[in-house]
Amino acid sequence: MIKDRRATGTMFGFDFQVNAAIFLMLENIRELQSIRLEGEEDIDINLEGNRKIIAQAKSVVRSSDDFSNVRANLKKALETLSEADSKINPEKLIYITNSLNPFKDEESRKIFYGPTKRSFSDLPVSAQNIIKEYLNKINTPLNAKKLYVYFFPFETDDDEERYKVVVDKIRRFLLQLNIADTVSEIKLHNIWNSEIFRSGVKKDKSAYLKKKNIIWPIIVIETDINNIKEDDVMDGLGIDIGIYEEIAEIYKNLINSSCERFEFLTKVLYDYNLFCSRGKSSKSHIKFIDTHWEKYKDEFSMDNMNSELTENLTKIIMYNIIRRMRSIKKIKEGTNL
Amino acid sequence: MMFEYIRIKEGLFQKKFDFVAKTNLVFSERNSRGKTSLLRFLLYSIGYNIPSTKGFRFDICSTETGIRTKKGLIVLRRQNNDFITADFNGVKKTYILPDQASYLHSIIFESNNKNILENILGVIYTDQEKGWTLLNRGTVIGNIHFNIEELLRGLSDCDCDDLLDKEKELSRELSKCRQMLKVAEYREKYAAEINSLVLDTEEEKQAAEINRLSLLLKSLKEELKRIDDNISDNKRFKEYVANLKILVKSPDGSVFPLSENDISGLEESIDLLVAKRKMLAAKIKSLYDRIAEKEKKYVRDEEDKTLFKMENILETIDKKIATLPISSSVIKSEIHKTEARLKEIRQAISSKTMSDSRLINSLYGNMVKYATELGVGSNKSLSPKYLFTSNLKELTGAVLHKLVFSFRLAYLIELEKKLGLKLPIILDSPSGKEIDAENMKIMMNILRRDFSDNQIIIASIYDDFFSDFNKIEIFNRLIE
Q1: Average pLDDT in chain B
Q2: Which residues of chain B have pLDDT under 50?
Q3: In chain A, N or C: fewer CB atoms in 10 Å?
Q4: A2, A220, A276: best mutation site toward chain B, by most B Cβ within 10 Å?
Q5: Where is A78: in which H helix or E strand?
Q6: How far is the C-alpha of B383 from the C-alpha of B362, rounded, in Å?
Q7: Do B273 and A260 touch (CB under 8 A)?
Q8: Quick check: A17 and A56 in contact, CB under 8 A?
Q9: Quick one: pLDDT at residue A52?
């Protein structure tokens, strides 16, 4: 997790910016091409077909009861978004915040309690008026039809509480991809939050984070050899889960290497492809492993290895190669990578 | 093979000694005149690493020895410990000692078998000091040893090198385990004394944590290397395919060039590895930072402690041993396992060694024959197993002496059968300390009767047991 999480304004603001970016990215994942974080507030999203989304992330540390700055935040954000609108002409302009009362307005505050997305026209009239008032004071004001106001709770020093919304959004994303039982949303949030979105920003503030750099870590986690479904292993391969784990531990370098070296894995996939061309079912990979493992066993048998171990090891490697290929396909398709 | 002469030069002095084909007696009335030295010189002069006798430095003498083999006379010249020259049929060859001694000996004794060459000396030469207690295993002289199992393997052309290597390896492991057991037992004793095996000082916890993290770091770095290697492999494969410049026929009949991007799954396998590598590198960096932080803290704490000099070095060692994760019961079981494997290997070696039963029976037969003649055993009291006995403690001086004689002759008979030539018998003080005149007569009788074709060289202060011999008398000093 974040090492130095004192709730100072800057650190907190930055943290919110990163999580807001994750939030928005997940919303647009299929069409996303790249995303960039600038300063402490700007989020630029590039979609397919040269379309853009520009967002301003404004946060308050004590978002449930400190509304002293929310109007100023809003004003500044509208100014920045207007500038962006005239320069870049994005498809959407988003003001995203964690304040429970972003307009400091009793009327509109009622709608901000869970994750909220409101287009300008869906906002309560009092909120619309506040926005219009600020826009009138701007030279080239943004097109209000493009404006959206987003809110989600983001508060306290406790990780679980602070990130609960974003982590939940990630979980739903994983469910959609059908990998929620092998990829932990907390682990993925951790990787996105601590590494991907920060390292990209730290090095070069104007560098765009490409979609592949966001999605591939998911594939890495999903295809880890220790990350398997018990049923697949026991019913499919006929190997006891304890034995699988033991073999995976002792021979992890060999198994990983076999699944990583293209020169070898392509042989298995080629044969598998051939096998499937004759008719595919959901259990094809199991049947394939059962009928073809002996073909590859000599690659892995070593002195003093008994035949049962050789068989299990070979099957485990084949299983992981095929599983890897299928996971890659599934996740790439699911995120349109 | 026999010795014809030896010329020994010491500084300005030199002397030549001639030998006959039959019995030679190196005689002096008094002790310590140089008889043993002469015998040892004979062996030194043909390339063996023989230690000098007291008061006589072999390596500053030079020797010239003529030995007669089936092929003719070989003249060997040696001036120091480092090399020896052999003149044979007009051809002169130099051998570096001790490395090439076996090449020279393989020519002299006409055999290339390592086991035979290493054990010949133990058969033909009996040293005054150690020789008469060397029954079947031990030191012949200096660092030259004799071993009956090796000799048997040589005589039966048996190759146990793999098993022998394994045996050595296991013995080493066993000895290591035994050392570790000592440490483990000490640790347990110490722990019992301080009543606790739990690391309860802060610094020990810190050190243990740093160790744990360092091990983790090591394994992550190994993983990183593996990933890097596989990335390179895959990229190389990509290049290779591109360079093949292949045109592919597609199902619709059109032809297109096979580019590296057309290989299904190749780009993805590289992408996956690159992503994995990035994640791993981040993990490693964060681990480095954690370790560095902990080490800084640990060093600071250590520095604070030395200010107080609370522990002396023994206490420190004891504490460190207490932190070692070794348990004597685990090591004991490992020792048992290794001992069992070692036993297996040794049994395998033994059965291979003894596989030639004809050879063993013949060896036994001759040994018993001479032992019976000398009155130290019979085929009832001695079984073939006795050839391999290690129990020498129960044998008294005279009995052992006579048994050694019997064994030695039995070895000689088999060795000569194998080599197809006669060997000299070199005995230093066969009367020893314990042998009475009667037994001496019997021993000499045996030699005269059964080994009349062998050259015999004996050193003794007695000359009344011999008839018809070449007497080499040494009066005051060997070289005068």
Answers
A1: 87
A2: 197-199
A3: N
A4: A220
A5: helix A70-88
A6: 13
A7: yes
A8: no
A9: 93
Contacts of B266 in chain A (CB under 8 A): 262, 266
Take residue B311 and report the two structure tokens written for it: 């522990």
Q: Which of A218, A219, A254, A262 to mutate to test the interface with B (most CBs of B within 10 A)?
A: A262
Q: Is A328 on the interface with B (CB under 8 A)?
A: yes
Statement: residue A1 has pLDDT above 80: no
Contacts of B263 in chain A (CB under 8 A): 262, 266
User: Which among A181, A170, A160, A257 has a CA at the least distance from the CA of A215?
Assistant: A170
Say whether pLDDT at A6 is over 80.
Answer: no
pLDDT at B70: 87
Rounded CA-CA distance B150/B120 in Å is 11
Angle ∠(A21,A22,A28) on CA atoms, nearest 5: 90
For residue B305, the model assigns a pLDDT of: 61
Which whole-number Å values give the CA distances from B70 to B73, B75, B120, B122, B420, in the listed order?
8, 14, 18, 22, 10
Mean pLDDT score across all residues of chain A: 87
Q: Is the pTM of this model over 0.80?
A: no
Calculate how close chain A gets to B273, using CA atoms only, in Å: 7
Q: CA of A153 to nearest chain B CA: how many angstroms apart?
A: 29
Determine, for residues B279 and A191 on separate chains, whether the beta-carbon distance falls below 8 Å: yes
Cβ(B85)–Cβ(B77) below 8 Å: yes
Q: Phi/psi of residue A34, each to 5°?
A: -155, 165
In the prediction, which pLDDT does B306 show?
A: 61
Strand, coil or helix: A58: strand
**How many helices (H) does chain B have, and how many strands (E)?**
12, 15
Residue B330: the pLDDT is 83
Distance CA B286, CA B280 (A): 10
Nearest to A195 among B227, B265, B282 (CB): B282
With beta carbons less than 8 A apart as the criterion, state whether B347 and B355 touch: no
pLDDT computed for residue B263 by the predictor: 85
Contacts with B, A 246-265, CB within 8 Å: 253, 256-257, 260-263, 265
Q: Looking only at Cα atoms, what is the longest distance across chain A?
A: 82
CB contact under 8 A, A217 and B279: yes
How far away is chain B from the Cα of A168, in angstroms, using its nearest Cα?
Answer: 23
Pairing state of beta strands B456-460 and B23-27? Answer: parallel
| Closest approach of A301 to chain B, Cα-based (Å) | 20
Q: Which residue type does B188 have? A: E
- Cα separation, B104 vs B96, in Å, equals 10
Do residue A220 and residue B282 have CB atoms under 8 angstroms apart? no
Residues in B whose CB is inside 8 Å of some CB of A read: 222-223, 226-227, 230, 233-234, 237, 263-266, 268-276, 278-279, 282
Mean pLDDT for the stretch of residues A58-87: 89
Distance CA B430, CA B36 (A): 12
What confidence category does residue A200 fall into, taking pLDDT thresholds of 50, 70 and 90? very low
B350 φ/ψ angles, rounded to the nearest 5 degrees: -60, -45
Q: How far is B233 from chain A (nearest CA, A)?
A: 7
> What phi, psi does B65 have (nearest 5°)?
-125, 135
Q: What is the pLDDT of residues A236-248, one digit of tens each?
A: 788 888 888 888 8
Angle formed by the axes of helices B437-450 and B397-419, nearest 10°: 10
**Strongest mean pLDDT among A93-102, A188-197, B319-328, B436-445:** A93-102
Beta-carbon separation of B233 and A223 below 8 A: no
Q: What is the pLDDT of residues B349-364, one digit of tens each?
A: 888 888 888 899 999 9
User: Taking CB atoms and an 8 Å cutoff, what residues of chain B touch A223?
Assistant: 272
